[in-house]
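A reminder before we start the practical. When you read a complex entry, don't treat the lines as separate problems. The point of joint prediction is that each chain is placed relative to the others, so the output describes one connected object in space. Small molecules and nucleic acid strands, if listed, are placed in the same frame. In the example below there are two entries. Take a minute to note the order of the lines before looking further.
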Amino acid sequence: QVQLQESGPGLVKPSQTLSLTCTVSGGSISSGSYYWSWIRQPAGKGLEWLGRIYTSGSTNYNPSLKSRVTMSVDTSKNQFSLKLNSVTAADTAVYYCARAADITPDYWGQGTLVTVSS
Amino acid sequence: DIQMTQSPSSVSASVGDRVTITCRASQGINSWLTWYQQKPGKAPKLLIYAASSLQSGVPSRFSGSGSGTDFTLTISSLQPEDFATYYCQQANSFPPTFGQGTKVEIK
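Here is the predicted structure of the whole assembly.
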């Protein structure tokens, strides 16, 4: 069964870049026709879809993030990554990585809390 | 973006009760509606996709219905492990958007 695990700094300073990596285990990130997604959830609030990447490198991003977000994939390491630049306190949230056959994520990581603070 | 509105925001119920949660989309989404269950400190768990298809391993007391703009999630007989927050998500168009959640609490 596929498992996903987020990793990265838990504290990021305002205006800097948030960088997270998701490691996929239990299967190759390149097998099957899956998209690899990022979703976030501020404390006590709802879920926001950030974007997805296919193993070809093709991406779809949430327009609400404008040009701040970049996703990449490293098939040799079975990982995919999220970069969000110019962060503010509003970007403080639990960040989840997930697998999706299309738009609907089915397998999720456990989530990692990222706090934006000086 | 398509707005998803859930009702109620919270519901108090007892073990064995039938619970129904409603999700309304701001425009038609055919049957591209997903339901998730989330427990505190945990990632969301996929329950139902395509409005009414039960994800593998999910108990049959969970069911979903609807199409177009109005959808429902029903728990036929609430169990202790079902106390959680439930989210709907539209998968019809980008960006996918979620409802604000419905918390199912113990009465």
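Discuss with your neighbour: The longest strand of chain B covers residues 19-25. What might explain this?
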